[in-house]
Here is the input.
Amino acid sequence: MSTQSAEYPIDRIATPCRDERLVVAPSFTEGTFDSHAVDCPFVFSRDGRQGMTYVGWDGVGYQTALAWNDAEHGWGPGQVVLARDASDPLRRYNAALTSIARDNDLWSAGELRDFDGWHYGTFHAYPAAGYEAGPASIGFVRSRDLLHWEQTGAVLDPRDGGAWERGGLYKSWLLEHEGLFYTFYNAKDRDQWPWTEQTGLAVSSDLTHWTRHDANPVLSVGGPGSFDERFASDPCVLRDGDFWIMFYFGLAEDGHAREGFATSRDLRTWVKSKEILLDVGPAGSIDSLHTHKPAVMSWNGRLEHYYCAVTHRDPVRLGGYAQREMRGITRATGAGTPPPNTDRSPA
Here is the structure.
């Protein structure tokens, strides 16, 4: 379980320079996969190119797109690579790919890992049409080219977990370390609001048989008055020397989502920082409501922190649904690569 003490210096991972614009925005065009919102960025590199998967919502459910970045034009249009499938009981309405196993180093470009010619990823899917309708499960997929994905292995079902995750499973993060695969995942305790979201861990040696950690949730909500009093959600887990860093977002009683971080030496015991890493923006900014769902990499010598930014907007009516928020993806950056990690203890 997490505590509220940490000595890992926040200035190592600070990204104070915000783009203050969306790098990926919804289309607001009926019939497109991203008509209502885009969400859940995952950034990486492959063969020297900077890539991103992200989720689009069209009023029915989630589907996943792949985009590439180039220095001249920025992020290109997203191509759907993991679509919902009416013939599949898990992906009938949703297919939200949220991570692909990559280089674990925080200061790397996040090159995707190759396991016997395959890239492996995690996705979650809700069982009904609508916005995150019903208790979601987590599935696993693999691809050789990032364009065509097939399901593989087991499914993490909320009914098989503890009471804290019975309401459904959310965004997950997959990594491999020393011969074991780790899936960190966000979950809620009930399907109807109000609920609590916390972060758990499942471990596998073969990507098929998964064992939930017996001390789940490994990252729990904070105490009264904390920025993560209601949610401790959406892990992004990377390594900085002897430390593992979990970027995550918290939801406070004021209704705003903000980002924080926790540290670990062993991927199982996590210690929260007391500091907010990225706060919500001022009134009128693109992230005035929520700053959340982190995805972090190093690119061209500086840390890049992508996240989902949410603000109010004038309603747009699409398919009988009035979308009253702008939900898109933006970026914050750091000054540059810091010096080698110190030998500070997280406890």
Notes: Residues 10-333 form a domain with the Tachylectin-2; Chain A fold (CATH 2.115.10.20). Residues 342-347 have pLDDT under 50 and may be disordered.
